[in-house]
């Protein structure tokens, strides 16, 4: 079984941010982020990190839906001409 990627590394990679940026976003010290990267993460912090990933995913889905809607609108206009 493959080892799951560390949530700190995953969030930084997915959001294209540095650990210092993540520390500012979570209002903790960069040293705390480093500790979490190498050890256990408090449950509430882990929840916040997972919500950050989910939020990014939902924003991408919304963007795709908007593009799809715009495409449908364009096709509808073209049919009326």
From TrEMBL:
Pfam families per the UniProt record, alphabetical: HTH_3
Alphabetized PROSITE patterns for the sequence: HTH_CROC1
Name this polypeptide is given: Helix-turn-helix domain-containing protein
Ranges for domain HTH cro/C1-type: 8-47
Organism: Aliarcobacter cibarius
């Amino acid at each position: 079984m493959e080892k799951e990627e560390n949530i700190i590394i995953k969030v930084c990679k997915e959001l294209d941010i540095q650990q210092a940026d993540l520390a500012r976003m979570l209002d903790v010290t960069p040293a705390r982020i480093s500790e979490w990267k190498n050890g256990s993460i408090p449950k509430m912090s882990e929840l916040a990190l997972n919500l950050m990933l989910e939020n990014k995913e939902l924003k991408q889905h919304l963007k795709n839906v908007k593009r799809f809607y715009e495409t449908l609108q364009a096709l509808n206009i073209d049919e009326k001409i």
